Amino acid sequence: MHAYIAVRQEGEALIxxxxxxxxxxxxxxxxxxxxxxPYALLPLYALLRGIPKTRDGAERLGLVTRGAMIAxxxxxxxxxxxxxxxxxxxxEIRRLSGELG
Length: 101
Fold this sequence. Notes:
- The chain has helices at 2-18, 42-49, 52-60, 66-78, 90-97; strands spanning 22-25, 29-31, 63-65, 85-88.
- It is an alpha/beta fold.
- The radius of gyration is 15 Å and the shape is globular.
- The two termini are 24 Å apart.
């Protein structure tokens, strides 16, 4: 995981260095075909979102569907933004796609 985060940070730094307008999407895990086991975690995530002490972590590390990710990518292109670099986490990806947590 440390290597993934380091590479992601390096890639985002390169994007920022270009000075072009960009949107960076940061999903924690994308639910899609081929890997069914993460679906078993959905009830746990719902429970953790209901506990104030664990709510932020459950939101930040939540799962998004492939459909939500595709919808968020399309909306990120279609909907203009004022920031030079906009970073969207799990909650923003869900809101942008119209998917509820």
